[in-house]
Each structure stands twice: as structure tokens, then as C-alpha cells.
Amino acid sequence: MWRVPIFLLALSPAMADERTALYGLWGDERQCAAQPIVPGASLLAQPFEIRPGWMRHGIIWCRLDWLLVEPRGDGLFASTRAQCGEDAVRDYRLDFALSEETLTMIWDERVVTGPLPRCPEQS
């Protein structure tokens, strides 16, 4: 008899619908405008781009395995296993906390990025 692994039951359509609030570009004013990190320099600040199975920040890409997504108070909390890198890959526990239209990322339960507003849509 064929059995569904228990972890697949957690990946319900409802979970996928809830996490769509996290998708898009997130960053401060400089990141959203892709301004130079240092005035006159060629390296540009970049926003975080989050999509269903991945996240990108500049040249660094992360594969996201979604673990938990749940509504909380005025927003949403999600937890992922992130595998990030270019030449070498490193594993992180990456949590997302969406509150009042700002996103905070918590890396390995100790390093905080944000809160970051959503970047304006570009036409």
C-alpha cells in the first residue's frame, strides 16, 4: 500500500496560499532603488527577492524548504530551511515574520535582518 510521508501533509494548499504574502521584493529605500552601497561605487544595494522555492539577495541565492507557515496577530510567521551560497552551500534555519507590512528575517534564531518594507512595484 502506498503511504503519503507525513511531512507532505504539512504542505497543504492553504499553507501555500498563506505564504504568498511573503513573495516579492523587500528592502530599505537604497535596496529598492538599487543605489550604490558606497557613493560613487559600482556595487549596488539589492533587495531580498522571495519566491515559492527560493530567495535571492544580489548574487547569493537560497533554496527554501518551507517548514511552517501560520498567521500570528497582525501578520504571518514562516519557518524554512534555507540552503544558501554561490560556490559553497550553507544551511540556515530562516524564519520570516511579517507584521504591519514589514518583513523581519531571523537567521539561525540569532541574526536579525529588518524590518524591511516591501519595495514599490516597478513598471
Number of DSSP helical runs: 3
Q: What is the number of E strands?
A: 8
Helix proportion: 10-25%
Query: What is the global morphology?
Result: globular
Key features of this structure:
123 residues; mainly beta; eight-stranded antiparallel sheet; 8 strands; 12% helix; disordered N terminus
Characterise the protein shown here.
The protein starts with 5 loop residues before the first helix and ends in a 6-residue tail after the last strand. Strand 6 and strand 7 form a beta hairpin. With 123 residues, the chain is mainly beta. An 8-stranded antiparallel β-sheet has the order 1-2-3-4-5-6-7-8. 12% of the residues lie in helices and 47% in strands. The chain has helices spanning 6-9, 13-19, 29-32, and strands spanning 24-26, 48-50, 54-57, 60-72, 75-85, 89-99, 102-107, 111-117.
Task: Please outline what is shown here.
This protein has 123 residues and is mainly beta.
Secondary-structure topology with pairs:
Layout: H1 6-9, H2 13-19, E1 24-26, H3 29-32, E2 48-50, E3 54-57, E4 60-72, E5 75-85, E6 89-99, E7 102-107, E8 111-117
Antiparallel strand pairs: 1-2, 2-3, 3-4, 4-5, 5-6, 6-7, 7-8
